Amino acid sequence: MTIFNLGSINIDLFYRVAHLPQPGETLASGGFDRGLGGKGANMSVAMARAASRAVHIGAVGEDGGWTVSRLTEYGVDTRHIQRVGATGHAVILVDDAGENAIVLHGGANQDIPISAVMAALAEATPGDTFLCQNETNLQAEAARMARSKGLRVTYAAAPFEAQAVRAVLPYLDLLVLNAVEAAQLTQATGQSLDDLPVRDVVVTLGGAGCRWHGPEGVQSYPAVPVTPVDTTGAGDTFTGYLLAGLDQGMPMAQAIGLASKAGALMVTRPGTADVIPDLKEVRDFHA
């Protein structure tokens, strides 16, 4: 099967700092690096490295050709990535405890043409998966189109925006969000997660593991214990591996177990898409 991902592609600019800055504070960076990122790109790489076929739908500028080449190297189908404007980027500060603060500039991610979505989904068949996040345009339109074609529709509700989640909720089969986003969604809708019109909701809890709100109620899963170095991209890695597991026919509990190991391994590495572990590494990983 195939996972079609309408997702962001960013140039990530990493700065190592002793601590995250306070308002008005100027910090000297202890290190700098540049890499491939964006929630969408991270998830596509994770799905490809988890041995699923990932088709990325997105856009970059002429300055972002290297990001497309890198996605291709990592096994992602990049035929439906367009050239529009300037590539999105993210400024990422990572402190000595592995926590981060991120500033995003959407760039081309906000100008993806509908023709790219239509061309990609023209190849889709019932039973394939469609994924989107809140870093691009066309989320609701694409989710509606994917649902009409019989795809399993998944939404990663980050960065959180209540209006964006409301727009895609009618088309979703699976919603993935973290604990903060879950609380924000509950407050915005006045509904508990169990009352949402979505079959499966997975809430990630960082070091406390995750919860699955499914047809048989709420089930909790522990985290894999590790010492974090950099938490950037861990949630995206979890989501990518979760969808890859489901795409390959795993039951939800098994897919969550695989995704939890991948996310745990990811936080032991500095970086984003370029350091997402492959399936062999995840299977061999023992905390």
In short:
By secondary structure, the chain is an alpha/beta fold. The chain contains 9 helices and 13 strands. A 9-stranded mixed sheet has the order 5-4-1-8-9-10-11-12-13, sandwiched between helices.
Structural descriptors:
287 residues; alpha/beta; UDP-N-acetylmuramoyl-L-alanine:D-glutamate ligase; 9-stranded mixed beta sheet; 9 helices
Describe what this molecule looks like in 3D:
By secondary structure, the chain is α/β, with parallel strands linked by helices. The chain has a single domain (2-19, 31-284), classed as UDP-N-acetylmuramoyl-L-alanine:D-glutamate ligase. The protein contains nine helices and 13 strands. The chain has helices at residues 39-49, 65-73, 114-121, 139-148, 162-168, 179-189, 234-247, 252-266, 279-284, and strands at 2-6, 10-16, 31-37, 53-60, 77-83, 88-94, 100-105, 129-133, 152-156, 174-178, 200-204, 210-214, 217-221. Strands 5-4-1-8-9-10-11-12-13 form a nine-stranded mixed beta sheet, sandwiched between helices. A hairpin with a 5-residue loop joins β6 (88-94) and β7 (100-105). α1 (39-49) packs across α7 (234-247) and α7 runs antiparallel to α8. The longest helix has 15 residues, at 252-266. The protein starts with a strand and ends with a helix. The model has no long low-confidence stretch (mean pLDDT 95).
Q: What structural class do you assign from the helix and strand content?
A: alpha/beta
Radius of gyration: 18 Å
Can you tell me the overall shape? globular
**Number of domain modules:** 1
Reading the helices and strands in chain order gives EEEHEHEEEHEHEHEHEEEHHH
Give the fraction of residues assigned to helices. 25-40%
Query: What is the CATH architecture descriptor?
Result: 3-Layer(aba) Sandwich
Kindly estimate the percentage of residues that lie in beta strands according to DSSP. Answer: 25-35%
Let me know the average pLDDT: 95
CATH fold topology: UDP-N-acetylmuramoyl-L-alanine:D-glutamate ligase
Helix count, DSSP H or I runs of 4 or more residues: 9
Main sheet, how many strands, which sense, barrel? Answer: 9 strands, mixed
Question: Can you say what the CATH homologous superfamily is?
Answer: Ribokinase
Residue runs with pLDDT of under 50 for 5 or more positions:
none
N- and C-termini, Cα separation:
31 Å
| Strand runs, count | 13
Sequence of strands across the biggest β-sheet: 5-4-1-8-9-10-11-12-13
CATH classification class: Alpha Beta
